[in-house]
Task: inverse folding
């Protein structure tokens, strides 16, 4: 089984600029994280964008959907900022019917040492291999159907809508 | 869904004794790792033993099987040293038929900072929720059926027997 | 020898707010860092403020000077943001003549895992025990006299003025 | 000021072999640690040996002394296992009279993430620039004269002999 990984940015890949004290994007840490996890699943990683998900437009989401539709792989992981992850998942679920797509992210940047990112990536890698066709969010060790998930803005936790 | 986690030791939980320079077991880091991963799946953690898997006897394995059989949960994760993980999985698969059991471990102790453990725990947590009844090993982002898996002693990698 | 440590904030002690994605101050990590370094020098730690040094006013600096003057200890370390550290050091050097005062900080928050803070704290702890009376900055493994030091804004490095 | 650093091994540079579960030496982490500390002091690093200090012989110590005597630099740091560090320091102090030599080490390997090594290296770097000629041990934020120091085997802490 081969898995396509699309990178879009989000907290996952943020870094600290020591001159300005601001957070910014440089390169993705996905390859380094897969090495650390000694992951031996065949993957093909593509960076589609590298942005904060609050800045993601529906044009960006169409681009993501297009790449999902055209990928040869049947199993796709998308790294994504958590703020609008549920919105992107919902749009994708309308367009991608015959593949398993798992969106995941992180609350703490991987570079900050105490990140949830590696745990989330491990769970996304497993969910994408085992869940039936559809679009899902993998966070907090759980998976959610794209049509029944929201991020609780107060707690930062993903939950079913009802 | 509630998940039972049985701890048996292994590299996962080894620590460095700074007075003797030896590795040893103290407390498990599982709760800390689940916190780090912001895992919100309901879990019940029990320590059955805290040993190097090279020292595990078949009496120990019977004890593990007994706990798996008697657990209320249908979904069980077992942390285990990698050296004899395949052997334990095979024995369990003969005794536990109606539950999903996932064994996982680590090549590098969690306390050593650059461990694969958090990634493996994330994938085990996902596999145990989605795989059908049976006994499995989750390592390197992959899952293996208990009756067709071995650890390659030269590379340290888990692989199918044939 | 007993050493007084005054905390004023700075990058040293910044944390990442996972709900807002902003950096903020909570508690100081100094005690944890001294534990990690297995530091056995007698210290007395006091938090005077917990701010970004760009927001520090000369009233704040007068307060720091007052505490330095009134401290029983002859050896004082001050943790401080790097942006205005040289300015504070210069003001202190005019008021504190009979003690050894060492200011130090970090370019990367300690909580981010790959911080220079622990190295800087180790060097500050050593310099404060061995340098003659005066006010100094300890950064990058070096020490600078308070009256001949500036932060190079482009490189982020402390250097002599001429 | 230029500083010579001699590496001899010790816990500082131990790594974990994930196939055997044993600790071993590969390359030194000193350059990486100095980068992490953003150290800008001019240094020249030489590896003399890479061994556990319990295996160090007096022939090894003569070699270290010879290198200290012949170095162009007046300021020398030696990384060394803690078990026989006091013994080596005493021998060096008989032979090296006109330079400042500071031995330091670590209780936890640097690669294990929660090491005291970076703190100790920061303090050694500062002590070697400021202490008068002589041979010293820098551990736990303190410095000790080579002729009045021992490692307390029960606590792992360096202390004056009386």
Result:
């Amino acid at each position: 089984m081969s898995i396509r990984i699309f990178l879009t940015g989000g907290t996952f890949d943020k870094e600290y600029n020591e001159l300005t004290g601001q957070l910014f994007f440089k390169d993705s840490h996905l390859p380094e994280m897969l090495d650390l996890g000694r992951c031996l699943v065949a993957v093909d990683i593509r960076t589609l964008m590298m942005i904060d998900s609050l800045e993601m437009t529906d044009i960006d989401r169409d681009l993501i959907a297009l790449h999902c539709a055209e990928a040869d792989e049947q199993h796709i992981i998308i790294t994504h900022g958590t703020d609008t992850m549920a919105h992107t998942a919902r749009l994708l679920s309308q367009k991608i019917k015959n593949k398993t797509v798992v969106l995941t992210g992180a609350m703490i940047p991987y570079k900050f040492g105490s990140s949830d990112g590696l745990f989330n990536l491990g769970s996304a890698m497993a969910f994408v291999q085992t869940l039936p066709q559809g679009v899902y969010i993998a966070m907090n060790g759980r998976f959610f159907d794209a049509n029944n998930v929201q991020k609780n803005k107060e707690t930062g936790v993903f939950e079913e809508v009802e």
In short: The first helix of chain D runs from residue 30 to 36. Chains D and A do not touch (no CB pair under 8 Å).
